[in-house]
Amino acid sequence: MSPSDAAAHPVKPDHVFDREVEWAELTGFVSDPRPGATLGLVSGQRRQGKTFLLQAVAKATEGFYFDGQAAAEAETLHRLAEHFGEHTRATHPPHWQRWEDAVDALLALGDQRPVPVIIDNFPDLVGPSPALPSVIHGAYRRLHQVRRHNRARLILSGGTPSLMRRLFSGPSSLHRLASLELLVQPFDFREAARFWGIRSPRLAVQVHAVVGGTPAYRSDLVCDDAPTGPHDFDAWVCRTVLSPRVPLYWEARNLLEEEANHADRALSHSTLVAIAAGCSTPGGIAERIGASLTDVSHVLAVLRNRGLLHAEPDAFRPALTRYRIAEPLLAFEHAVAWPHRALIEQEDAAGVWQRVRPTFDAAVAAPHFAQLCRGWTTEFAAPDTFRGEPTTAVRGTVSGPAGHARLDVDVAVRGTVEGRPGVLLSVGLARWNETMDIHHLEQLRRALSVLGASGEDVNGAAPACYSGIGFGPELRAAEARGEVLLVDLDRLYHGG
To answer: Which of 146, 250, 301, 443 has the most C-beta neighbours closer than 10 Å?
Structure first.
């Protein structure tokens, strides 16, 4: 990198963990020397570190940063003017009566050089001022017509991608002006382990099954209280996520109450409890909670649009959609904490946890481990692991022959082989608390036989076993003969 490049793209501060890609995208955008005002949109679920990252960018580039808050328009304009006066070192802050005046002044900061102008929590400003996106659109149109030299780099941040899309839709869509759309996502499971300082892969899975990869859950909601080792996990759960005195205990409820309206809230809780208990299809959820399929489908759509649920087609029955909870804390809440909240708040958390620990292992850790295995296949597996390029990994149901039970596949991997997309690369079983052996391989062989008989191309599909405990000697011998792919926790976190 040349000295000029180094100046144009500031080095990421040490206190910003990971986020190399996001930092490069943001600093490349705000430091772009070319003339013309540009617009960037930053979105992501709450508590992913958007504010932390944007504040660091503003500081490193001497840019303007404003944290929006839900308030009356006049109060917001007053606060914004105060921040603007401090930034420009003005003797007196301006007195803006309209958003038009404020936006024009902010963008004028880019008249002399590329300047980031960052407005965080932008959706909170749009509520009291619904015309604000149109005001910004009009300001850009004027800049592009009469001040083409301007190099303001406006970044609007806050909210989920779906919320940002709704805000910026319509005839004055800001999406058409945006040259950067950045989604700040949770840390993946390997990054999360490093962020929490966890070296034990088994402990890392357990912690990730509770808090996922959301950075603020460690820094803000448990005051950096991390388990000291595998022996400390149970105590850590009791003193954090099961302690009403700790903010993390209330976070799942707050998250759902922010995202679902009052009418949907009770049904949303019931739906999430059903999914956490293993019901993954709309029909199964409706039957479990005694609600109509129409009502359940509505709630599923709401939760999915808010990013709280993922919907995935069955690997072998594409018309069948399965739902899973996207936020691990919500899954933990509705499998473990929600059904026992009264006891948790009235009794010793350790006693409650001892009773529900088997539920955690079966209903939370086990399916979460399977999901991490699916993520490993597409994100971390070495290029030659599946003799193809994996693109998707989902659950699948194989209908057995007449008189035989169905076969459930935990990790069905499809990808591209020699230019052919959608090829079945592997079928796998994931077992969190079970030593896997040759009978698991026999299950996979039966599944492949049934799939082959139904017309699926299984010639290159590798049987795979994923275990949180380990593998028996016969299965290890089969691995040595090249008959099965084995993935243990060490390979999940450190191998390909």
So the answer is: 443
Q: Please check whether residue 131 is in contact with residue 99, taking contact to mean a CB–CB distance below 8 angstroms.
A: yes
Comma-separated ranges of CATH 3.40.50.300 domains in the chain: 3-183
CATH 1.10.10.10 region(s) of the chain? 191-367
Which tens digits make up the pLDDT trace of 391-429? 999 999 998 766 567 889 999 999 999 999 999 999 999
pLDDT tens profile 210-259: 999 999 999 889 999 999 999 999 999 999 999 999 999 999 888 877 65
The CATH architecture that domain 3-183 belongs to is 3-Layer(aba) Sandwich (3.40)
Which run of H or E residues covers position 325?
A: strand 321-325
Looking at CATH, the fold of the domain delimited by 191-367 is given as: Arc Repressor Mutant, subunit A (1.10.10)
3-state secondary structure of 391: strand
Question: Of 279, 313, 316, which is closest to residue 296 (Cα–Cα)?
Answer: 279
Q: CA–CA separation, 135 vs 156, rounded Å?
A: 13
Tokens for 25, please give them. Answer: 């995208």
- Contact, 443 vs 478, CB < 8 A? no
- CATH number belonging to domain 380-494: 3.40.1350
Give dist(CA 204, CA 191) in Å, integer. Answer: 10
Note the pTM of the prediction, 2 decimals: 0.91
